[in-house]
Amino acid sequence: MRTTPTRITNCIDRLLLQEGGSIKDWCRKHGFYEQHLIKIRRGHIEPSGWIMLRIAQAFGRPVDEIFNLMPTDDIWEPKA
Questions:
Q1: C-alpha distances in Å from residue 66, one per residue of 16, 28, 56, 80
Q2: CA atoms of 52 and 29, how far apart (whole Å)
Q3: Interval 12-36: pLDDT, tens
Q4: Three-state SS for 50?
């Protein structure tokens, strides 16, 4: 069985710009580690469901407005 690999993308940069201020201030206000949010924002790590819910709640937006699944060009086949 072949599946299409995906990765999680986000629009955290756009939302942070709309809110103004620094990422450091936003993280302090909402209880996030700055480096963790930066890694999520850049796509270096994929957030857990719980973290996605907390980020969405902090922005006051639905999760699917912030995070999306995008297909990648990588070919991946599960091991039998």
A1: 11, 20, 7, 34
A2: 17
A3: 999 999 999 899 999 999 999 999 9
A4: helix
Given a contact cutoff of 8 angstroms between Cβ atoms, the answer to whether 10 and 66 are in contact is: yes
| Contact call for residues 7 and 70 (beta carbons, < 8 A) | yes
Q: Which superfamily, per CATH, for 6-71?
A: lambda repressor-like DNA-binding domains (1.10.260.40)
Domain range summary for the chain, segments of one domain joined by +: 6-71
Which 3 state secondary structure label does DSSP give 71?
strand
Is the backbone of residue 34 left (phi > 0), alpha (psi -120 to 50) or beta?
alpha
16: burial class by Cβ within 10 Å (0-12, 13-18, 19+)? middle
Global pTM exceeds 0.85: no
